[in-house]
Amino acid sequence: MIVDILKSVIFGIIEGITEWLPISSTGHLILAEEFIKFNNVSEGFWSMFQVVIQFGAILAVVILYFKKIWPFTKNKEKAIKRDGFLSFFDKEKMNLWGKILVGCIPAAIIGLLFDEVFEAWFYNPPCIAIALIVFGIAFIVIENWNKKRKGTLKETNSEITYKDALLIGVFQLLAAIFPGTSRSGATIIGGLLIGLSRPNAAEFTFYLAIPTMLGASLLKLVKFGLGFTGIEIAVLLVGMIVSFVVSVAIIKFLMNYIKKHDFKVFGYYRIVLGLIVLAYFFLK
Fold first, then answer.
1. What total number of domains does the chain contain?
2. Does the chain have fewer CB atoms within 10 Å around its N or its C terminus?
């Protein structure tokens, strides 16, 4: 049991780092599982674990950005000007949540319908490696293009339109289909393409993660059922706690980093890692 707990700590660290950096958490977890496997868990636990462990990462976003996303208010000037329950909602934040939900529609619909199909087709090392490389190149190309781009960037969430949110949601769908794409990576690329600043694109990506990852986690839990053993409960809780702690640090790091730097370093990392993965499994 202790060995499995230690392995869960490792997976929690990997999840916390790779969920928010645009380098693919699912891809890294699947690759790590090639070398680190749980011993005392039931069949199907890993498929559930690699998704539900994200709950800790979600909680990190909720806590760090609570003031920006909490939709209730006692300020009458900010509240929706209607009688009854709606008068307690902050207009601006409810508008933000509307955009978040619109951005989740593509992945929610396609993910629910074809989740098992995508997992059977694409959850393998070669597909992960290709996605890592392709989106790594995309980051480099888009950042170089952005340097020559004219016009002002959208710096705040209020400047994001519902059309923008839907387009970013389409990019998020790519991550639902292809592991190794990176949910944060795909949505950030989408945000950059439609004119969002790096911090704004990253922040909106964090918000999109809340319903998207929560929904994916609940879906996996329902499919797995509630027949957890004591060891499995301990392994899952430890993984989520560790991913939460690491996520808090990584989110703060990323937001400070992109104020002065672009995303190209993550693009180069993805390309190198993708090539290593391809070489490893080819030689294997």
1. 1
2. C
Mean pLDDT throughout 247-263? 94
Q: Which pLDDT does position 86 carry in this prediction?
A: 65
Residue 89, Cβ density class (10 Å: 0-12 exposed, 13-18 middle, ≥19 buried)? middle
Residue 192 · residue 139 · CB < 8 Å: no
In which domain, by residue range, is 131 found?
A: 2-283
CA distance 115 to 162: 26
pTM score, whole prediction: 0.89
226 burial level (CB within 10 Å; 0-12, 13-18, 19+)? exposed
- DSSP three-state, residue 58: helix
The two tokens of residue 241 are 């706690």
Residue with tokens 């790096």: 198
* Dihedral pair phi/psi, residue 72, rounded to 5°: -95, 150
What's residue 165's pLDDT? 96
* Residues 57 and 19: beta-carbon distance below 8 Å: yes
Q: Do 195 and 38 meet the contact criterion of CB atoms below 8 Å apart?
A: no
Instruction: Provide the CA 56 distance to its chain's centre, in angstroms.
Output: 12
Tokens 């004119």 correspond to: 195
Calpha distance 258→201 (Å, rounded): 11
Determine the Cα–Cα distance for residues 107 and 177; give it in Å rounded to an integer: 9
Quickly count: other Cβ atoms within 10 Å of residue 217's Cβ: 18
DSSP letter string, 120-185? HHH-SHHHHHHHHHHHHHHHHHHHHHHHT--S--B-SGGG--HHHHHHHHHHHHHHHHSTTS-HHH
Encode 174-198: b = buried (16+ Cβ within 10 Å), e = exposed. Answer: bbbbbbbbbbbbbbbbbbbbbbbbb
Question: What's the CA angle centered on 35, arms 235 and 121, to 5 degrees?
Answer: 90
